[in-house]
Design a protein that fits this description.
By secondary structure, the protein is of the alpha+beta class. It has a single domain, classed as Roll (2,3-Dihydroxybiphenyl 1,2-Dioxygenase, domain 1). It has seven helices and twelve strands. It has an eight-stranded mixed beta sheet with strand order 2-3-4-1-5-8-7-6. A hairpin with a 3-residue loop joins strand 3 and strand 4. The longest helix is centred in the N-terminal third of the chain and has 13 residues. The radius of gyration is 16 Å and the shape is globular.
Length: about 210
């Protein structure tokens, strides 16, 4: 299990304004990622080191956004002013996760501006929407060279997440081995005061450590 990406919902400035501000903070340029037709959202991404990336996501005026848990979660977070939405871990074999959660993963896709269709299966977005401290899980159906982290060279590393929540809740949700598998990222747990979930992420950049 590997921390695949972190998601940030746009604020009042929309996709362009939100990515411009994050890009300024990180001294980096985001890439147009394209739309998620099944979820009614679109994103821009910042490739990171260690096969990870930062996603800034915006809900679209599309019927899928009202039906899909991910679209609903993005709209809810953006309506609240934007900010950290959630985090995603990737697995090579989805069957164990499906067994633990008692349901099947659903297909997802995103067509990049160059026409390439990224495809995957995912599970847990409803859980993330209800309890944002929990990650959702993805299983990519693409060659590793097409992973969003490979979109451009990067000198930025995600080093830590600050999460309002309970580590035992995560262990019960994904299983203790999954928690141990995330030890390349420092997870700092704080007691929630309000909605649980990511409250900050720390990145190592050529200019130093940046906390957002």
């Amino acid at each position: 299990m590997h921390l695949d990406h972190v998601s940030f919902a746009v604020g009042p400035d929309g996709l362009a304004g939100t990515t411009a501000e994050l890009g300024r903070l990180l001294d980096a340029k985001f890439i147009d990622g394209g739309a998620h037709p099944r979820f009614g959202t679109r994103n821009m991404i910042l490739p990171l080191k260690n096969a990870q990336y930062l996603e800034v996501v915006e809900v679209l005026d599309h019927p899928a956004a009202d039906k899909a848990a991910f679209g609903q979660a993005v709209r809810q977070r953006s309506d609240a002013g934007g900010g950290w939405l959630g985090w995603c871990v990737s697995v090579d074999d989805m069957s164990e996760v499906e067994h633990r959660m008692g349901r099947h993963a659903v297909p997802g896709n995103r067509r990049r501006p160059d026409g390439f269709n990224l495809e995957w299966r995912q599970i847990g977005t409803s859980g993330m929407k209800a309890d944002p401290q929990l990650p959702f899980v993805i299983n990519w159906d693409i060659d590793a060279k097409e992973h969003p982290s490979q979109g451009a060279p990067s000198e930025i590393t995600l080093t830590a997440l600050e999460i309002a929540g309970d580590p035992k809740r995560l262990a019960d949700y994904l299983g203790e081995p999954a928690v141990e598998a995330l030890d390349d990222i420092e997870v700092r747990w704080v007691a929630p005061h309000g909605t649980p979930g990511i409250i900050a992420a720390q990145f190592s950049t050529p200019a130093g450590d940046i906390r957002i």
